Amino acid sequence: MLKKLFIQNYAIIDEIEIDFSAKLNIITGETGAGKSILMGALSLILGDRADSSVLLDRAKKSVAEGTFETNGQKEIKAFLKEYDLDTEDELVIRREIAANGKSRAFVNDTPVNLEQLRQLSSLLVDLHRQFDTLDLGASDFQRDVLDALAGHGALLQQYRSLFTQWQHARHELDSLQQQKNQFTKEYDYNKFQYDELEEAALKENELEETDTTLKLLSNSEGIKSALTKVAYELNEGEQPMVQQLKSLCNQLQSFTGYHTDLPVLLQRLLSAQIELQDIADEVERINDHVQYDPQRIEQLNDRMAVGYKLLKKHGVKTTAELLAIKATLEEKLQAVLNIDEAILNKEKAVQQSLQEAQAIAKTISANRVKQIKPLQDKVNKLLAQVGMPNARLQVDAQQADVLQVHGIDVIEFLFDANKSNRFEPIRKVASGGELSRLMLCIKSLVAQSLDLGTLIFDEIDTGISGEAAKQVGIIMKDLAKKRQLISITHQPQIAGKADYHFFVYKQIKGDTIKTNIKLLSQEERITAIAKMLSGEKPTAAALENAREMVMN
């Protein structure tokens, strides 16, 4: 609900402040008084573009500010939370335009961009100008009307959840199928590489160990010759080293009692002799095991050739890396076998969620279809009341080939203004005035069900008068019981239904003409309406007629 509108330095408005009623607010005034300027300033708050030409005084900025009461509306709270704005029950939306044409927008003093302002204002205000098609011709709004009348919001929410689940499952299935196609393309190549590694049957660290063994065998003759010489010198030479040490120990043994250092020295010689004897034994043992084996060397060389070929092919340096590649290839080959099962399971999930969504979509569709005839009958009856006796609304509902986020229905509101039985989509054939009155009729039927913001009608009464205008006023009055409504009008029959009646007028201040607005008292309302009936100097009959309109 729009509680207050403040405008400063805009067009020919110096500064005005308007406090609106929560019900029916009517704005009247002579042509050119500035009613459209009010709508222009309000449009700034709603996110319209602006330039510096609107500044009355170019030395100051222009300001349009609206104070709104949100009444805990869920969509508004969600929007404020999404953009990290203060979630208060009262919102102050301000638009400022500088002399250079640049504008800034604020929500509760927090800067926002124009797109955010448009999104938020669309939740707060529903503005209908005479020449706007607005959302009446949009399929989303048309479908929302039937859904509001059907009252199946919980069913729609359940359907959308299933639809999202189905879409997600379809996406996962597509990904699996693309993955399988890629696997299939690579399968033969991966299989060839895996079989090659499998045939090689490499063991952990095999190539490194084989290389070490091959080096040993290739140098076995030289190693054996060196070991034989060492063993001979230690044990069997002309003066064997082990025997020499043993003799030295025996010579020193008999003198250990005569010098305190000799026992320690003797012990060291004995240790050296024992160590040297152990080395001699180890050399002989190793010598016995070192054998030159040409056949074994050939086998190992063949094995290394296979290994080097694989290392070079895969661009790696160790057996461990080759074994890791083999394991990866095995996983890829196994994945080809597993993915078919995964695809089968996902296909079942897709089909199940589709069937569940289709079942609910059919129920929703049936509910919508049930509302078509009552809607047509009620709207057509209201159209006759508002001065369009030959106009007819027809609702066309077709079922789409595939599920959509809103169900399976394609809804189109068709319109025939002249009983020609040639129904065409509203957006193509209805005039601005017809659209506005049609929108008024429809919204009066669904205002309680749809979470509408403040409804603003800008001169939707063009081309009507008398009884039709009276009926428009009655519908507005009834609609305003459920939603705040602001209407600019030239019709006294509509003005007579106001809860608050504002009058826009021009006044001369110094050498300039400026627009102002005031809330009329009951007597002022009667006079203003009488002037609307009979001219600047209302007759007694016009005043009496106006009094009856206001009092009735």
Automatic annotation (TrEMBL):
<dbReference type="GO" id="GO:0009432">
    <property type="term" value="P:SOS response"/>
</dbReference>
<feature type="domain" description="RecF/RecN/SMC N-terminal">
    <location>
        <begin position="1"/>
        <end position="508"/>
    </location>
</feature>
<keyword id="KW-0547">Nucleotide-binding</keyword>
<dbReference type="InterPro" id="IPR003395">
    <property type="entry name" value="RecF/RecN/SMC_N"/>
</dbReference>
<dbReference type="InterPro" id="IPR004604">
    <property type="entry name" value="DNA_recomb/repair_RecN"/>
</dbReference>
<comment type="similarity">
    <text>Belongs to the RecN family.</text>
</comment>
<dbReference type="GO" id="GO:0006310">
    <property type="term" value="P:DNA recombination"/>
</dbReference>
<dbReference type="InterPro" id="IPR027417">
    <property type="entry name" value="P-loop_NTPase"/>
</dbReference>
<protein>
    <recommendedName>
        <fullName>DNA repair protein RecN</fullName>
    </recommendedName>
</protein>
<keyword id="KW-0227">DNA damage</keyword>
<keyword id="KW-0234">DNA repair</keyword>
<dbReference type="GO" id="GO:0005524">
    <property type="term" value="F:ATP binding"/>
</dbReference>
<comment type="function">
    <text>May be involved in recombinational repair of damaged DNA.</text>
</comment>
<dbReference type="GO" id="GO:0006281">
    <property type="term" value="P:DNA repair"/>
</dbReference>
<dbReference type="GO" id="GO:0043590">
    <property type="term" value="C:bacterial nucleoid"/>
</dbReference>
<dbReference type="Pfam" id="PF02463">
    <property type="entry name" value="SMC_N"/>
</dbReference>
<keyword id="KW-0067">ATP-binding</keyword>
